[in-house]
């Protein structure tokens, strides 16, 4: 899979973001996207081939692997990256709509089409809420699917067609667990950044509205 589109999207939305938003983009690009491409993919590359059970019963190893890894960690991480980055597209599309509207009417309708105010502010806030929601949903999903954030060295499987309870061994469990903790930590950091930016924007524009009302009353 090419991650060029995601990189371009993050770079494109960066110029419309606040300072906190730019930090979020940096965290996603450096600590998540680059780590995923450069390191994490190789850690989980042969996870099925390196999953071993102490039985030669045909089909037993496959059903045990499917039971303990219903969705690959790395594919779930990739899906999470896509989902938490996609809401940023709403901001880019809204700015494009503003620019296109000015172009068709051939007149200046906005002081700056990329300035976060009015309808664009609402779109930006919605994108932050969606990103935060996706982050939390994926953390809960990881926890539920894998019964926590640990990767055991040994799992016991008694699912048919296994003849009895067999021992199955997961490859590189410590390395995988470290990356899983890293994933959860970066997700939590992104949640904090999103909530901080959301609070900052709401507070900033609430103060701005209050000042406008106060000025009107004075006049």
UniProtKB/TrEMBL annotation:
Pfam families: Connexin. Residues 134-201 form the Connexin cysteine-rich domain. One of its GO terms (molecular function) is gap junction channel activity. Gene3D superfamilies: Gap junction channel protein cysteine-rich domain (1.20.1440.80). One of its GO terms (cellular component) is connexin complex. InterPro entries: Connexin, Connexin_CCC, Connexin_CS, Connexin_N, Connexin_N_sf. It is found in: Cell junction, Gap junction; Cell membrane. GO terms for biological process: cell-cell signaling. Keywords: Cell junction, Cell membrane, Gap junction, Membrane, Transmembrane, Transmembrane helix. Residues 42-75 form the Connexin N-terminal domain. It is a multi-pass membrane protein. PROSITE patterns: CONNEXINS_1, CONNEXINS_2. The chain crosses the membrane at residues 21-39, 77-97, 118-143, 178-203. SMART domains: CNX (SM00037), Connexin_CCC (SM01089). A connexon is composed of a hexamer of connexins. One gap junction consists of a cluster of closely packed pairs of transmembrane channels, the connexons, through which materials of low MW diffuse from one cell to a neighboring cell. Belongs to the connexin family. This is Gap junction protein. The gene is Gjb7.
């Amino acid at each position: 899979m090419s991650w060029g589109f995601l990189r371009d999207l993050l770079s494109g939305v960066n110029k419309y973001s606040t300072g906190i938003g730019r930090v979020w983009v940096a965290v996603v690009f450096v600590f998540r996207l680059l780590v995923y491409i450069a390191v994490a993919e190789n850690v989980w590359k042969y996870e099925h081939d390196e999953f071993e059970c102490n039985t030669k019963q045909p089909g037993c190893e496959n059903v045990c692997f499917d039971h303990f890894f219903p969705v690959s960690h790395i594919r779930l991480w990739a899906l999470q990256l896509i989902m938490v980055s996609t809401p940023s597209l709403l901001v880019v599309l809204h700015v494009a709509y503003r620019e296109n509207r000015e172009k068709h009417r051939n007149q200046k309708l906005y002081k700056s089409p990329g300035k976060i105010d009015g309808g664009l502010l609402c779109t930006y806030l919605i994108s932050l809420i969606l990103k935060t929601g996706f982050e939390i949903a994926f953390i809960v999903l990881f926890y539920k699917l894998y019964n926590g954030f640990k990767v055991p060295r040994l799992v016991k499987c008694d699912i048919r067609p296994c003849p009895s309870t067999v021992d199955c061994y997961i490859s590189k469990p410590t390395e995988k667990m470290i990356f899983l903790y890293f994933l959860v930590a970066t997700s939590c950091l992104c949640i904090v950044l999103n909530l901080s930016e959301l609070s900052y924007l709401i507070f900033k524009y609430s103060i701005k509205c209050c000042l406008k009302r106060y000025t009107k009353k004075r006049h």
